[in-house]
Amino acid sequence: MTSHRLRSLGFWSLVVAILAYMTLPTLVVLMTSVNPTEILAFPPEGISFQWYEKALTYPDFQRAFKNGLIVTSLASTAALIVGSTFAWLVHRYTFRGRGLLEAVLWSPLIIPHFTLGFGFLLLGGAFGLQQGYVMIVLAHMVLVMPFVTRAVYVSLANIDPDLTRAAANLGASPFHVLTRIELPLVLPGMAGGWLIAAVLSLTEFTASLYVTGSRTQTLPVAMYNYIREYADPTVSAISALLIIATTLIMFIADRAFGLRRVLAIDTH
C-alpha cells in the first residue's frame, strides 16, 4: 500500500508540475499587463489598466487586427472547403495512394512553420505575389487545414452507417444521402473545425513573419515589431486580451459543438 501511495503521489506531483510549467507563462503575462510602470517587470508594482487602453487604440495593432480578420476568415473558410472534401474522400473511398494523400494532409503538423513560411515566401517571389494577401491566405490555409480535416473526418466516422444504408435502400440518391443525412450530422464538426482553424490562423506568427509586409502584417507580427522597439507592458495587455478571448471562444465552442467529441478526445 505504501509503495502504491508513493507511486500515486509521484504521478500526481508530476502532473501538477507539468500543469504549473504550462500555465506559469500565461499567469506572468496576465500579471505584467496591469503593471503601472513603463517597463516590463514581474511581479507588478501595482495595478493599472492604462496599457489595455493603449493596446486597443494603437494604430498598428488596429490595422494588424483588421488584416488578421481578413486572412483568418478567408484561410479558415478555404481550409474548411478543401479539408472537408479531402476528409470525405478519405473516409468514403479506398484507392491507390490514399496513404500518401493522408500523409500529405497531416504533414503541416510536423513540418516546422518557419520552413513552410520560407517556402511560401520563395513561391510568392517566383509569381510576384510576395507579402500580399494571396500568399498569406494560402500559407495559413495549409497550416490550419489538418485540424479541419481531422474534425470533419472524425464526425464522418461517428455517423452510424445504418442511417446511410437505410436512406439508400429507401431510394435516396447518393447526393440526397450526402446533403440530407451526412451533411447535417457533420455540421458540428465542420463548425468546430472552422473555429479551431480561425483561432490558429489569427494567432499564427512564425509563418506569418515570412509572408507578411508592413501593410499586410497580422497582429502577432505587429506585436513582435512593437516589442523590438518598446519595452512597456502594451504587448502583455494585447496578449492577455488574446488569451482571454481565445479561452472564452473555445469554451463556448466546446459547449455548443462538443469539441472533445469532434476531435475524438472523448468518444462517449
Automatic annotation (TrEMBL):
It comes from Ancylobacter dichloromethanicus. PANTHER family: INNER MEMBRANE ABC TRANSPORTER PERMEASE PROTEIN YDCV (PTHR43357:SF4). The lineage of its organism: Bacteria, Pseudomonadati, Pseudomonadota, Alphaproteobacteria, Hyphomicrobiales. SUPFAM superfamilies: MetI-like. GO terms for biological process: transmembrane transport. The keyword Nucleotide-binding does not apply. This is ABC transporter permease. CDD domains: TM_PBP2. GO terms for cellular component: plasma membrane.
